[in-house]
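Milestone M4 deliverable, item 7.
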Amino acid sequence: MVALVLLTAGTLRSTLASQQVGVAAGVVGVVEISSEARQPPVKAKSGLELLLRDRLASNDESHMQAVLLDRTTLTLGPNSVLVIDELVYDPATSAGNLTATFSQGMVQYMSGDIAKSEAENITIVTPVGTLKVSGTSVFIMNDSKSGSIFIGLLGPGRSNDASLVPGGFVLSNELGTTTVLRSGHGVFTDKGAAPGAPMLAPAYLLDQLQAGFTSMPATAGARGAGKGPANAATSAGQNLADTAMIAGEMARVSEMMREIEEVVREGPEVGVGLPDSFFSFR
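Output delivered:
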């Protein structure tokens, strides 16, 4: 069961007392989750409930996905840190707000229901500025080669011929603003500097991104296995397992939302006047 904090005063059922914002999926390796609500910190596992202000921190060769209540997906790569700061979501209209903070490593954002209705309300805070995402898929990563942070657009931009909903992002800080609207393009930015000009995403960064999200923890057998067919088959099998797990978690999120809406409709019976299934996590 999911427990929520509502905008109206009152008390929900005790089974809806925690501030869950989503679930973990496709966990590989070691990812530690900590917050004021989690003392001591816990190790992530697929199916674990994610709470408001959870800090997700991955180790080497580790990655996971955070599937939020509005079906937004945040994929965390190795040696990465991400905090879920705010989730405001109305499942009846898909309206709401989402704010997360990226500190280091690599993360990929894939839009959910909120982005479909209020894309301007998606915010990702980074060490080099504030990112406003309009739909689509975006990645953020530290570039060890340049020492900068690169933010790139993966989803369809405005210039696509597949009739897909276009997206883009705007990176702003106190020194300037850069807008990226073309898929496969992005921007390098250093701390304390204005955002750079849009450019084609370097191939080596895209290779690092793919490797980071498909890495497998080293084992005694794997260390000596090299890159032969057996190792490739293991990787492919893990990818299929991750896909199945994510699909299962998405179904679980849908079921949770149905349960929540039932509780909201029964609001008057528990002494709470609730407005149209509007949930707020801050």
